[in-house]
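can u do me a favor
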């Protein structure tokens, strides 16, 4: 296959790869399934020399997150991403740091009260991009109804919307990831000259009471049912929220029309299910078992990932042949273009093993050292390693043979 001649392709054991691919071809579409990571695997790591965002970064960088919060999120990323990719640390050593990162980062997002109805716009305005050749990849797999399992430690809401906006969110795609949990939408009702919050779902009223409690003000509403500044009467958090309203005017009519439509958009209040971070992808047993229990016949697997944590995504799945394709991204882009910059070196120096004691190493040398060491490790663990490859060409050429 000509795609295998590309400079980006590194294979430790070509005979083994050939044997696996032959097994996959023999099984054809009926036996195949794809298990893939999202960030930096299906999505691009860089485009035109610029780093592309992860799912989390899409939210971090959006206009609905305050500058102060963004700064904190970037500081967290600087510290913890260096740990995520550090070749000198074991997965066990990295594990508690990943939990710490996700816990802090998700707590900050919740503090920002991000609204569900902003997701579409935020993703449309972001630089998140799927890898070149994504159309062929998703179209072909859908055409042959090959199950595609996207297992991501990113944000499910963001990645689903990104795939949807790219026009490839087909029914054969299943996503397991960290999904935001939004407050229920709250409907307004006008009764007896009083306007108050009426919750259809249990919990909705509570959500609204929270919103009221936060600014300690009464709310008022304009013609299209949106909240606007109103009579500034402080109220107590648990006080019943109602107030006289002129029910005869156009405003009331507009509100009456709006009854049963969500007027207060859902606001993030947490995350659903078990946390998925980069190094616990063998976990979340329940959701995975449910999905894979229907796919016992699909024992030929193409696994795609970019992190060493992605290698366990197929653990517990019945396997006849598995081909593991790993993207090793351009870590050089992680640091400032100035090779004498110490920012990367500083974070690397925090690690116990400290680059084998080479603490005075320049940042650029440190990164080159890191890539070389990672390539060796990646080639031991992934069957095919793609270095700085922003395309799905290799995966597509293999799928072409199988399907
Ligand atoms: P993945 O499993 O789809 O690759 O997604 C996980 C990536 O998300 C991983 O590289 C870490 C990254 N991440 C951020 O960029 N910002 C954050 O705040 C967190 C918690 C993770
Ligand atoms: Mg990834």
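np, heres the sequence
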């Amino acid at each position: 296959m000509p795609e295998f001649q590309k400079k980006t392709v590194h294979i430790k054991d070509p005979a083994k790869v050939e044997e696996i691919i032959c097994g996959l071809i023999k099984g054809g579409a009926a036996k195949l399934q794809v298990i893939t990571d999202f960030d930096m695997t299906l999505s691009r790591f860089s485009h035109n020399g610029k780093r592309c965002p992860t799912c989390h970064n899409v939210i971090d960088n959006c206009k609905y997150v305050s500058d102060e919060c963004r700064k904190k999120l970037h500081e967290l990323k600087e510290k913890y991403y260096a740990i995520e990719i550090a070749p000198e640390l074991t997965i066990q050593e990295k594990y508690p740091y990943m939990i710490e990162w996700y816990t802090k980062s998700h707590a900050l997002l919740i503090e920002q009260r991000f609204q569900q109805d902003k997701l579409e716009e935020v993703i449309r305005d972001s630089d998140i991009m799927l890898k070149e050749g994504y159309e062929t990849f998703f179209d072909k797999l859908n055409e042959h109804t090959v199950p595609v399992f996207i297992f991501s430690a990113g944000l499910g809401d963001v990645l689903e919307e990104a795939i949807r906006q790219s026009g490839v969110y087909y029914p054969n795609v299943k996503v397991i990831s960290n999904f935001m949990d939004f407050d229920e939408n709250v409907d307004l009702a006008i009764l007896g000259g009083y306007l108050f919050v009426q919750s259809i779902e249990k919990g909705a009223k509570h959500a609204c009471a929270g919103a009221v409690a936060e600014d300690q003000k009464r709310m008022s509403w304009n013609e299209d049912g949106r909240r606007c500044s109103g009579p500034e009467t402080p109220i107590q958090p648990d006080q019943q929220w109602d107030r006289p309203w002129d029910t005869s005017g156009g405003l009331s009519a507009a509100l009456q029309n709006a009854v049963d439509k969500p007027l207060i958009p859902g606001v993030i209040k947490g995350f659903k299910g078990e946390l998925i971070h980069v190094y616990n992808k063998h976990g979340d047993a329940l959701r995975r078992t449910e999905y894979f229990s229907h796919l016992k016949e699909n024992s030929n697997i193409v696994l795609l990932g970019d992190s060493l944590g992605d290698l366990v995504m197929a653990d517990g799945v019945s396997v006849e042949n598995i081909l593991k394709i790993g993207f090793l991204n351009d870590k050089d882009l992680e640091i400032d273009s100035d090779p004498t910059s110490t920012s990367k070196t500083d974070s690397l120096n925090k690690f116990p093993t400290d680059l084998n004691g080479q603490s005075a190493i320049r940042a650029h040398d440190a990164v080159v050292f890191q890539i070389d060491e990672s390539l060796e490790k990646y080639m031991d663990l992934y069957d095919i390693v793609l270095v700085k490859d922003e395309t799905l060409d290799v995966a597509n050429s293999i799928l072409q043979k199988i399907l």
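Residues 91-111 form the longest helix (21 residues). hope that helps!!
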